[in-house]
């Protein structure tokens, strides 16, 4: 066995759990629970990120007047999440496995303190043999507070919980090298670091999904860059999870089994850097750097952002806030945790012999 997987995250997309008519596919859900239960009993710690709240609520409630999209999502998810977690509870109970519900939102990843609180919650669940079932708190996370979709959430969870693999289950066998509808297209089996996939991805989404394949690909790339194997596979196929794990552990070449695997980076990334990598959306300001600093950052050297290389400081930020790093051509090249506030950074800007504005340990270059 090449690599014994001991902790994984599994994301189940809306489409896997819903039938064509939008109702919850309990047969599929039950089959996936059976596989997860088998893996759990074999000693694999599993964090489940499950969509399906909105879809399962939609078939339960029939509003009398027309609702806007926010009202619909809030109403359906409030009803649907209760239904969904109840189903999981019953299905896992048949295997004697306790489950717990974790509802979260984007803001909870914004500060390091909230982030560590969530991490602690899931760690204590795993330590006590409980499977965390995570979903976005759709009832209160609206518009800009929302994750792009649950793929983004699953990436954050995988990174936060230091899993070895993230398995994203959708209703398609993987990423195709063309339109999935074209019979000439094939599933890409392995994706190496740095490969540009944009020309393959269509903007179309499946009927109940939110983000589409593009977000899946972007998230998968980022998570794989942090050293985590990411797999995109078809959750509608029988025994898919069990087959993937066997295949991954033995590194067998099973030609029958199709899925896309993002090869993880061999470089380890510290847990603080992982948090910073996913915190771009919370940036409070920008540090613009000169050409020389840009070149050094792009090299393999471990360097901090020093005031001498900074040409402009934008926005108002406090010490420990997240800031975006912008290169001399105006491109965002990374994110970091500020070592001082924006006033102090402006004061030191362009000067020699000053303390770093972002220390290397708190800097994530994309
Ligand atoms: N190159 C591609 N390979 C595979 N799927 C693609 C590709 N381009 C677009 N897609 C679409 O992405 C969909 C999956 O994304 P999404 O609808 O967000 O699923 P989920 O709800 O499971 O997260 C597929 O059903 C497919 O229609
Ligand atoms: N939180 C939502 C999931 C929405 C979503 O993004 O789903 P998906 O397209 O499966 O990633 C729900 O439970 O309905």
Detailed description of the structure:
- With 366 residues, this protein is an alpha/beta fold.
- It has 2 domains: 5-260, Acetylglutamate kinase-like (Carbamate kinase), CATH 3.40.1160.10; 282-363, Archaeosine Trna-guanine Transglycosylase, Chain: A, domain 4 (Roll), CATH 2.30.130.
- It has 11 helices and 13 strands.
- Strands 3-4-2-1-5-7-8-6 form an 8-stranded mixed beta sheet, sandwiched between helices. It has a 5-stranded mixed beta sheet with strand order 10-9-11-12-13, sandwiched between helices.
- Helix 5 (112-127) links the parallel strand 3 (99-104) and strand 4.
- Helix 2 packs across helix 4 and helix 6 (150-160) runs parallel beside helix 7 (213-225).
- The longest helix is centred in the N-terminal third of the chain and has 25 residues, at 69-93.
- The chain is globular, with a radius of gyration of 22 Å.
- The model has no long low-confidence stretch (mean pLDDT 90).
- Bound molecules: adenosine-5'-diphosphate and ligand VHF.
- The ligand N[C@@H](CCC(=O)OP(=O)(O)O)C(=O)O is lined by residues 13-14, 51-55, 77, 135-136, 138, 149-151, 209-211.
Give the oligomeric state of the chains in this entry, treating copies of one chain as homo and distinct chains as hetero: single chain
Mean pLDDT: 90
Poorly predicted runs: none
Name the CATH superfamily classification of the largest domain. Acetylglutamate kinase-like
**Secondary structure tally, helices:** 11
Structural class: alpha/beta
Radius of gyration: 22 Å
Q: Report the CATH architecture of the largest domain.
A: 3-Layer(aba) Sandwich
Strand count, sense and barrel status of the largest sheet are: 8 strands, mixed
The amount of beta strand, in percent, is: 15-25%
CATH class group of the largest domain: Alpha Beta
Q: Give the number of domains.
A: 2
Helix content: 25-40%
Distance between the termini: 33 Å
Task: Enumerate the strands of the largest sheet in spatial order, edge to edge or round the barrel.
Answer: 3-4-2-1-5-7-8-6
């Amino acid at each position: 066995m090449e690599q014994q997987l001991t902790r994984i995250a599994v994301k189940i997309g809306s489409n896997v759990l819903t039938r064509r008519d939008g109702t919850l596919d309990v047969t599929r859900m039950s089959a996936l629970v059976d596989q997860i239960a088998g893996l759990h009993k074999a000693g694999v710690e599993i964090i489940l990120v499950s969509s399906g709240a909105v879809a399962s609520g939609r078939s339960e409630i029939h509003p009398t007047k027309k609702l806007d999209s926010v009202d619909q999502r809030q109403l359906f998810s409030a009803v649907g999440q209760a239904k969904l977690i109840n189903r999981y509870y019953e299905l896992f109970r048949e295997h004697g496995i306790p489950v717990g519900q974790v509802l979260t939102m984007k803001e909870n990843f914004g500060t390091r303190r909230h982030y560590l609180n969530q991490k602690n919650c899931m760690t204590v669940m795993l330590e006590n043999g409980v499977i965390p079932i995570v979903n976005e708190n759709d009832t209160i996370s609206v518009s800009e507070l929302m994750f792009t979709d649950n793929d983004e959430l699953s990436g954050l969870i995988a990174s936060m919980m230091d899993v070895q693999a993230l398995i994203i289950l959708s209703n398609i066998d993987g990423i195709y090298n063309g339109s999935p509808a074209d019979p000439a297209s094939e599933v890409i089996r392995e994706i190496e670091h740095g490969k540009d996939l944009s020309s393959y991805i269509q903007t179309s989404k499946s009927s109940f999904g939110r983000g589409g394949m593009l977000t899946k690909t972007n998230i998968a790339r980022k998570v794989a860059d942090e050293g985590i194997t990411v797999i995109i596979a078809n959750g509608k196929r029988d025994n898919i999870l069990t087959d993937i794990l066997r295949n991954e552990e033995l590194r067998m070449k099973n030609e029958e089994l199709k899925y896309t695997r993002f090869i993880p980076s061999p470089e380890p990334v510290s847990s603080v850097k992982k948090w910073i990598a996913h915190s771009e959306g919370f940036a409070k300001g920008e540090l613009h750097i000169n050409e020389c600093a840009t070149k050094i950052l792009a090299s393999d050297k471990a360097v901090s952002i020093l005031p001498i290389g900074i040409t402009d400081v934008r926005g108002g930020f406090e010490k420990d806030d997240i800031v975006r790093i912008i290169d001399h051509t105006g491109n965002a090249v990374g994110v970091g945790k500020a070592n001082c506030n924006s006033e102090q950074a402006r004061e030191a800007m362009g000067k020699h012999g000053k303390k770093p504005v972002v220390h290397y340990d708190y800097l994530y270059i994309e």
